[in-house]
Amino acid sequence: MASQQSRCYSVLSVPSSRTRPSGVTIDDAFLLEAKNTQKRKLSQKRNTLPFQVSISGNLCPWPTYTTSQTILRNVKPCSDGYQKRTSSWQQEPFGIAKPRYLEQLENYLRKELLLVGLSKDSAQELKLQPYREIFEFFIEDFKTYKPLLCSITHQRERIRALEPLKAKLVTVNEDCNERILAMRAEERHEISMLKKEKMTLLKLIDKKNEEKISLQSEVSKLRKNLAEEYLNYLSERDARKILIADLNELRYQREDMSLAQSPGIWGEDPVKLTLALKMTRQDLTRTQMELNTMKANFGDVVPRRDFEMQQKTNKDLQEQLDSLRADYEEVRKEHEILLQLHMSTLKERDQFFFELQEIQRTSTPRPDWTKCEDVVAGGPERWQMLAEGKNSDQLVDVLLEEIGEGLLREKDFFPGLGYGESVPSFLRFEGLVENKKPTKKDVVNLLKDAWKERLTQEQKEKFPDFFFNFLERRFGPSDAIAWAYTIFENIKLFHSSEVMSQFYAVLMGKRSESVYVNQKETIAQLLKEMTNADSQKEGMLTMEQFSTVLKSTFPLKKEEKILELMEAGGWHPNSDNADFLNYRALFLEDEEGQSEPFVQKLWEQYVDEKDEYLQELKQELGIELYSDVTLPKLRGALMSIDSSLDKQTLNTYISQAFQLPVSELPEEGDGKEEGIVVRLQTALERLQVIDVRRRGPREQEPAS
């Protein structure tokens, strides 16, 4: 910018930093000085013009149709065309006179262009200088349009100053793009090299694993061969000893024969020789008999090494037998002591039970549950485990289960209930029924198998009939009734067992099968959602993921209900959301069918939500429990508290409340609806049997 100004306006002096005001850069000061110098030159040149015409003076109007004659063409001043045009212009008569100020400007422009055209090496920028000066004259004389014309000049100078920066920006952009492409190419090359190295290492690992497997198989084969060779060497050693003994015996016999056949013997008496031969034959016969006896006696004799090994094993087993006999005697004595203790405990239990009934009848103090520690089998430790986290009502159930379990074990037979209509179909029998006395674990496993078979087949028959047919298929027609009574007594007794209590409720018609099926489907769906959220498939989730899965699976639950489930799963308010949780352990069951606290909390929330739903229905109806409610009023109350109910679910609820088939329900608006009534308490008890739950959010609060 500074070079262009020096070329256009001659050499300009730059003000020093001392005279420059604060906050003004060198470029700004330079431009300011250049403008001042330009103004001084323009004022001097204006004084040289023949006439000084002010913008405030009277200017002659110049019609637009005469501008074609006064516009200066782009012709060099020194050329022939320029002189011809000048002479013709001067000789051309004017119909309308030009303004004098315009003529003065044109004459000044011609002179300046003539001077510039004489210098042969003049630059293009220098040829534009006369036009700049003419433009400055316009700016100075026309005061009204001076700000607009000055802003045009200033913007043109700024555009000219920014052109180098634009070129530099393009260059820097190209350099950056080249560097980015080079870095990406280098990264791709590095990634490809790392992938190749990874494949090489994987192949090396596979090769090493194959070598390891082959070496292990070879080692096992060598060990087997070594054992076989060792046995062969032992057999060879024993055979060698026997062979040496036989060789020694043959050598002794050969020496005896050589002595008998010596030359001095032939000179002896034949009678003596005959006698010696006879004695020798007798000895041979006796020796042969002894040899046969030894073969008969020791033909099955084992080697001494095996004999010693068996003898040592026998000794160890004898010692173990003696130890087990001593332990058995101790256990037998302890068993006798425990039997005596059990009998005394039964007496104490009966006494305590009688005292408990008396106390409950006469007074209502808070019971001291520590008294049960000595009564329950297993002592204080088992009682503490049973009583953990339970209220007084639940502790009474636990105590009754323990007492009832002992009484149930003592029974050998159950009395038949007969064939009355009030007796369930699977218990109709006359006479005594054998008590099979299964363990609690066996009963739970049997009930689980019954549920599995029930869910896999079509539910055409009633549940009690299915249960009895299942027992006939499992144990045969002869033992089916005995198992039916045994299982019925067990599930009626153990209320704390989830599997038994739910099966008993369904079997006796106190709860619908759909409640159990929907609960199992909900648990399965929740486990599936957690498995999908586990991207690493390691069985672990963060607490944040755990909370997200619960909220998406149960969108109608409140925030406090979600927090209860998280706490049952192992979350604490002070724990970090990044902590990991083994979600698969939340759905495990022990050998007696007891679920983890998380699944138990789900069931408790379901029961509480059902009770809350039915309580809202009662409040919406606004009548007493012993009052009658009509079908239209019940339908309106259900739709009022839960507007998201579909028609099928609504008809199911109404059918259950009034004990009518869905096909026989009158249409809405039919006059027959008013004649169908039921007591409110009865309707609520019937709805408690089936799977009743909220289908949509409440109107006063959005779904969470």
Automatic annotation (TrEMBL):
Keywords from the named record: Coiled coil
UniProt domain Translin-associated factor X-interacting protein 1 N-terminal: residue ranges: 106-207
GO-annotated cellular components: cytoplasm
Region of interest (Disordered), residue spans: 1-20
Tagged with keyword Coiled coil: yes
Coiled-coil annotated spans: 191-225, 307-341
InterPro entries per UniProt: TSNAXIP1_N
Pfam families in the cross-refs: TSNAXIP1_N (PF15739)
Keyword GTP-binding: no
Domain of life of the organism encoding this protein: Eukaryota
Protein name: Translin associated factor X interacting protein 1
Organism, as annotated: Propithecus coquereli (Coquerel's sifaka)
Gene name of the record: TSNAXIP1
